[in-house]
Records
---
Amino acid sequence: MRILALGDVVGSIGVEALRRHLPSLKKRYSPDMIIVNGENAGDNSGITAKSCDALFAMGADVITGGNHSLQNRDMFDIYDREYGALRPANLHPNAPGSGVYVFEKGKYRCAVISLIGNVFLDFAYENPFTAADKIIKELGIKHIVIDIHAEATSEKIALGRYVDGKASLVFGTHTHVPTADECILPGGTAYITDIGMCGPIDSVLGVVTKCSTDFMITHLRGRGMEIAKGPCKIQGIFTETDDSTGKALSIERFEIDDPIK
């Protein structure tokens, strides 16, 4: 199975940049499934119904979430009816929607699990390790992909190694900075700590630099977290797995410059 995963999409500028480059990525990798982390795809922080629809329309099969997944109420109905739109599985059980989606296409059947970390984040209702254990056991599927949306690199690495041999791919999101540690772990799980972002380069993680520095200096929101403008980068990974075992065969990190302003 050929899996394409795109890093955190930031604002409508990130959505449009991805729209421009997804056709070439499809041609290059011929993916069977496309996963996009979309929890920041709205312009006012979080994901909106409009940005979610745009990501599905351009070809995303699954949209994973994070700490901003439930920020906009217009997403609640979408989570409940559009099973490919995920919020973290280890949020409170009363949260709308689901954090698990079983993608089926032809001969392929692959479960995608969206999880959120505990370290330095106050969103998880259930520990991501015990949540992963329970979900994987219940699924009984060979092909499993986990997006661990977490702040601490140690927590992401630990989770990857914890489920090694039980998942086909574990990739990290949330920090918007791609890491250079892509590998196949001893048990056959492809792993990377962070796959980066699809968003504006001249920024602090997609946000206008002055907004971020002002907040870090004063601890006052001031102008808020305004999405930056200008050229973007498209960052993500491509993984191929063995059809019969679900074990990873390869993992490749990519980055595309989008100069259009």
---
Amino acid sequence: MRTLVVALALVAGASIAHAQAPAQSCQAQAQAKKLAGAALNSFMTKCQKDASASCDKAAADKKLAGAAKSSFSKKCVSDAVGSK
């Protein structure tokens, strides 16, 4: 019974995290807009900053702290930005 509850909690957590992810990564949006040069740099900087704020809020909502918060935020931002 306990493993069922843990499994359901993990699935629910994954669903929530997936629902918070942007529709497209920053890189995909930049490619769709055909940005280059200074426009690309400006867009990516703003997009990364916005993603960082959003991920920090999500970490706070999940009441994460320390290494768990750092790990979550790093992966969240990386997914949102679309790092290679």
---
Amino acid sequence: MKPARAAARRYLPTSPFGAPPAAPPAEQFAVRDQVTHDRYGLGRVIRVETDASLVVDFGSCCIRIMTPCAKLTKL
């Protein structure tokens, strides 16, 4: 038997509680932006491939990272 999956709750306009906050916009990266990654450290964006991935140079290696990535932060 599969466990039940939690469904996203819908907002009712008559609810005394406020509407849920909107999701923050996805971070946009450009070539030569400095970034930090939780695993690889400090790096610089060297290529933006479409809007879904980045190639980042971390000094010792170049890594292709799919966005959005929770571990990647623009400085």
